[in-house]
Amino acid sequence: MHTKTMEGLVGARTNMNLMNTPMRVYKEARRKGDTQIMERAMGYVGDFSDKAEEYKAEADKGMEEDAKEAREKSELQREEAVQKRREEREKLEAKIEEKRNADTNADTVEISEKGKVWLKDNLGTDSVGAEAAAVKSDTAKEPVTYTKAGDAVPVEQETSISVSV
To answer: What does the alpha-carbon distance between residue 88 and residue 96 come to, in Å, rounded to a whole number?
Structure first.
């Protein structure tokens, strides 16, 4: 809370409390019919009321300054948060770009001379590319299931399920 606000609120409350005494004197003088005491008491009431209004105005100024400072502070915090999010997004985009670059570098597989010889002997053709296509076409012809031992077993095409209720 701003100093002006606190001073204004305390001053206004104090003057309002001080105004109670001359008001009580005024009421008592009115009951007795003493106009001179009534006028003097009303003068004090007016003075305290004016001072309370001044303090109220000071409290209002202080509250406006408090609100202005709070708006500036929240705006600064908002800008910092936006900047932080922007930096985090840039870091994330850099990581994503780095991953993309890492993913585009494809691994290459080279077959050794021994592997090429084995492939020729087992498939009986001279072209390694044709051999690979032949291997792919052999595996794609019939669906198979592999056992725990690694043996290929042909998949049974006809499976029937009967449910009775």
So the answer is: 12
Amino acid code (one letter) for 29: A
Q: Which residues contact 147 (CB under 8 A, 6 or more apart)?
A: 153
Q: Which two tokens stand for residue 118?
A: 């084995």
Q: What is the DSSP letter of 105?
A: S
What is the reported pTM? 0.46
Question: Is the pLDDT reported for residue 80 higher than 90?
Answer: yes
Model pLDDT for residues 133-150, shown as the tens digit of each residue? 555 555 456 777 778 888
**Residues pairing with 154 in the sheet:** 144
Structure tokens at 92: 């994330």
The alpha helices in 1-154, defined as continuous H runs, are: 3-32, 35-104, 113-123, 128-141
Separation of alpha carbons 144 and 155, rounded Å: 5
C-alpha distances in Å from residue 164, one per residue of 122, 159, 160, 161: 51, 17, 13, 10
Structure tokens that stand for 140 in this block: 């794609």
